[in-house]
Amino acid sequence: MPKVLVLYKKPKSAEAFEKHYMSVHVPLAKKIPGLTAYDISRGGVGTPTGPSADIHLIATLSFDTMDALKAGMGSAEGKAAAGDLANFADGGVDLYIFDTQDL
């Protein structure tokens, strides 16, 4: 299952980030064509040695095929969601695209 992993780094204001993310960004992202699942981390993000010093939130977007992922991310809705990142992710954001295999 192809996925997009989004790592949001610590924002200047966690409250402002959360407000915009939940009220604006999530509704935009949920309109991406071909999106089959969208989940986010809740609570603190940890590492094997303790709390993460720089990651605020993790989102995972799932698609049925890599072609569906590419089409969805390239669509007007995908571009709108990507364009919205500058409006709230002031700490930075990393996106990773990969395919998974059940073992």
Question: How many strands, what sense, and barrel or not for the largest sheet?
Answer: 4 strands, antiparallel
Give the CA-CA distance, first to last residue. Answer: 12 Å
Individual helix count: 3
Total number of β-strand segments?
Answer: 6
Rg from alpha-carbon coordinates: 14 Å
Q: What are the secondary-structure elements, in order, as H or E?
A: EHEEEEHHE
State the low-pLDDT regions, or none.
Answer: none
Classification by helices and strands = alpha+beta
Q: What would the average pLDDT be, to the nearest integer? A: 96
Form type? globular
Share of helical residues? 25-40%
Residue fraction in strands:
25-35%
Strand order of the largest sheet: 2-5-1-6
What does this structure look like?
- With 103 residues, the chain is of the alpha+beta class.
- Helices cover 33% and strands 33% of the residues.
- It is built from 3 helices and 6 strands.
- It has helices at residues 14-29, 66-74, 76-84, and strands spanning 2-9, 35-40, 46-47, 50-51, 55-63, 93-99.
- A 4-stranded antiparallel beta sheet has the order 2-5-1-6. The chain has a two-stranded antiparallel sheet with strand order 3-4.
- Strand 3 and strand 4 form a beta hairpin.
- Helix 1 packs antiparallel against helix 3.
- It is globular and about 35 Å long.
- The protein starts with a strand and ends with a strand.
